[in-house]
Specification:
The complex is a heterodimer of chains A (286) and B (294). Helices cover 42% and strands 18% of the residues of chain A. Chain A is α/β, with parallel strands linked by helices. In chain A, the strands form two sheets. In chain A, strands 6-2-1-7-8-10-9 form a seven-stranded mixed sheet. In chain A, strands 3-5-4 form a three-stranded antiparallel sheet. In chain A, strand 7, helix 11 and strand 8 form a beta-alpha-beta unit. In chain A, helix 1 runs parallel beside helix 3 and helix 2 (35-49) packs antiparallel against helix 4 (67-78). Chain A is globular, with a radius of gyration of 21 Å. Chain B is an all-alpha fold and 294 residues long. Chain B folds into two domains: 3-17 and 105-293, Orthogonal Bundle (Hypothetical protein af1432), CATH 1.10.3210; 22-100, no CATH class. Chain B contains 15 helices and no strands. Chain B has helices spanning 3-14, 25-35, 41-49, 52-62, 76-100, 110-130, 136-145, 148-156, 160-171, 175-183, 187-197, 202-210, 221-236, 255-263, 272-293. Chain B is globular and about 50 Å long. The chains are: A alpha/beta (286), B mainly alpha (294). At the A-B interface, helix 5 and strand 9 of A face helix 13 and helix 15 of B. The structure holds S-adenosylmethionine (SAM) and fe (ii) ion (2 copies). One fe (ii) ion binds at residues 116, 120, 146-147, 231 of chain B.
């Protein structure tokens, strides 16, 4: 018998089927302790579609005519989109001082002057725009004569729309150095800031579900992947699957960044662990 | 420079120096105590009691989050009973070293220096514990003193030291590399010279001399290797010196790792990520503690 939290939730009431459906769809795993959180989020969507029980909502998601769109809405309801510019400074410092010079040396030697970077859970765009600013700062020096491309993806269409729009509050740019604020943002009426079109042009936003094999296999030839603060919501099994895709998607010698305090221990032992001041990164062996 | 050229250069420079740092008397006495076959807790206790300032510092440190004592420790007897001889001895050395050198090194932030040294002691002990060393506590001391040569360079090399600091900033390199460039030798050589002069136990001298080149150690190779890794961890996790160092370490590829692996194959099963994140909490405690000692 499952633990129940309030009157309407009983064993076999459809809750666990809903939880399984989320897991199968996007790899996000909710432990029993999150049940109350889930119930409240389901309740919002159930009201919107007029489902009277978890069971009914579950069958709507499985068989309803509008099921794809509803699953998308449900996922938007249960995911965390918290992010900011320069969220993890040591990571960007490592990108700039360690990785870029190394890649330029290695790829430059074979005359292939292109870099492809993927921000794989980009939320409202702060992470890929930060990466773009860092590369742009090197455009006339280290990266002179180089082309670069940033692919930014997320499962959530709402956040992607906001990322494409590129309008941010003071709060989102709180960790941004003054220099970058002046150079790469345009003040908007009302106090918000718009990311400049020069930065935008380097980024391609797309909807990609990290748990969807059919999409993951097509992202190839990457030099650097960022996958920060999303796999914490996955379980070991679903993490393993995603990380294996990243491994395959990377070029030899390419790097993977994950969030602060996240770990691949026991998830993948093909990647080589590197420590830099303030963080770790993983390299696909050469 | 060859090892003998280095030794000669240092000898020429340091032996005519008038105000070389001296060791506080209490440290000499503790080291003497350690050389005895059965140092008693009473001897140690007598030493500390003679210096009330020191005694109260020790009590303060013992009650800091680093030692995670369950009930407040009020006096030396309780501290001894709770922590044991080795740990208290190490505390005596830590507190007296830090206060002895507090005013030195005008060109250099001594607080940062001691936070790094103290952190290195703690991490050395943790690594030794992970590897199942019997004398994990004794590794603490090796970590604590590993960079002592830096105290001399920062105080006595008034012309060269600013040039070294400058290189750290412009090149993002380590002290070791900058010193090689500016002096032709490093804090390891200088510290080693001093350790011999001060009659440090051999394992400490080795750790001081070879913590950046562990494969060259002549003895106590494992002690040196542990200190080498601890130093890397500290520099990687906010207990380095104040400059961003372009450091990229893959631990299993480090010579020190290979040295330790020979006797402790279990080293390869350490969850390095978790270890790193656990260290971060300790690092905060170290910063706080050092702040209270100054
Ligand atoms: C907390 S944000 C992280 C944003 C950014 N990477 C950072 O570290 O600041 C997590 C993002 O992961 C997305 N996400 C969750 N599950 C996903 C999946 N299966 N595939 C792709 N994105 C997913 C969410 O929509 C959300 O925008
Ligand atoms: Fe050193
Ligand atoms: Fe050091």
């Amino acid at each position: 018998m499952e633990t129940t939290y309030h009157g309407t939730a009983r064993a076999g009431d459809g809750m666990s089927q809903l939880r399984d459906l989320i897991y199968e769809t996007c790899g996000i795993y909710f432990a029993d302790s999150k049940r109350y959180f889930l119930e409240s989020r389901f309740a919002r969507r159930m009201e919107a579609v007029g489902a009277k029980s978890f069971k009914e909502y579950h069958s709507y998601l499985r068989h309803g005519s509008d099921r794809q769109a509803e699953i998308q809405k449900l996922i938007e309801e249960i995911t965390t989109n918290e992010t900011s510019f320069f969220r993890n400074m040591p990571q960007f410092q490592a990108l700039q001082t360690l990785i870029l010079p190394r890649m330029v040396a290695a790829k430059g030697a074979i005359g292939f002057k292109r870099l492809k970077i993927w921000s794989s859970a980009c939320s409202t765009g702060e992470e890929p725009y930060t990466i773009a600013m860092i590369l742009m700062e090197k455009a006339t020096t280290l990266l002179a004569g180089w082309g670069f491309e940033i692919i930014a993806t997320d499962i959530n269409d709402q956040v992607l729309a906001r990322a494409r729009e590129g309008i941010y509050s003071e709060y989102a740019i709180r960790a941004t150095p003054e220099y970058h604020k002046k150079k790469y943002f345009v003040a908007q009426p009302g106090g918000s800031l718009a990311i400049s079109p020069d930065v935008k042009k380097y980024i391609k936003f797309q909807n990609v579900n990290l748990y969807d094999d059919s999409r993951m296999v097509f992202l190839k030839g990457l030099d650097i992947i960022f996958c920060c603060n999303v796999l914490i919501y996955f379980d070991q099994t679903s993490k393993k699957k995603v990380i294996q895709h990243f491994y395959n998607n990377l070029n030899r010698g390419g790097y993977l960044f994950i969030g602060h305090s996240e770990s691949l221990f026991g998830i993948n032992d093909e990647f080589k662990l590197h420590h830099f001041p303030g963080g770790v990164m993983y390299q696909k062996p050469l | 420079m060859t090892p003998s050229e280095r030794a000669a250069a240092i000898e020429a420079r340091l032996s005519r120096m008038k105000d070389l740092p001296t060791l506080p008397v209490i440290i000499l006495k503790v080291l003497e105590l350690m050389n005895r076959s059965d140092p008693s807790i009473q001897d140690l206790s007598n030493l500390i009691s003679a210096d009330q300032v020191l005694a109260s510092k020790i009590i303060k440190v013992v009650n800091s989050p680093l030692y995670a004592v369950r009930t407040e420790i009020r006096n030396l007897q309780q501290a001894m009973a709770y922590l044991g001889f080795e740990a208290v001895k190490n505390l005596v050395l830590t507190c007296s070293l830090i206060s002895h050198f507090a005013g030195k090194g005008a060109a250099f932030n001594m607080k940062t220096f001691w936070a790094h040294s103290f952190g290195c002691g703690i991490v050395s002990k943790l690594i030794a514990g992970k590897l199942g060393f019997e004398s994990a506590e004794s590794l603490y001391l090796a970590g604590l003193v590993h960079d002592l040569g830096e105290v001399v360079i920062s105080t006595a090399y008034t012309v060269e030291f600013p040039a070294i600091l400058k290189l750290l900033q412009t090149d993002g390199c380590s002290f070791y590399t900058a010193e090689e460039k500016v002096l032709g030798y490093t804090h390891c050589d200088v510290g080693g010279w001093l350790a011999v002069k001060w009659r440090f136990p051999e394992s400490l001298t080795q750790a001081i001399r070879y913590h950046h080149t562990p494969s060259m150690a002549k003895s106590a190779k494992e002690v040196v290797a542990v200190v080498n890794l601890a130093d890397l961890f500290c520099r990687l996790r906010s207990l380095g010196y104040e400059f961003f160092e372009e450091l990229d370490v893959s631990f299993p590829d480090e010579p020190a790792w290979q040295i330790l692996k020979a006797s402790s194959p279990a080293i390869d099963s350490i969850d390095l990520e978790r270890f790193t994140y656990e260290l971060d909490e300790k690092m905060d405690d170290v910063h706080n503690l050092i702040a209270t000692m100054y």
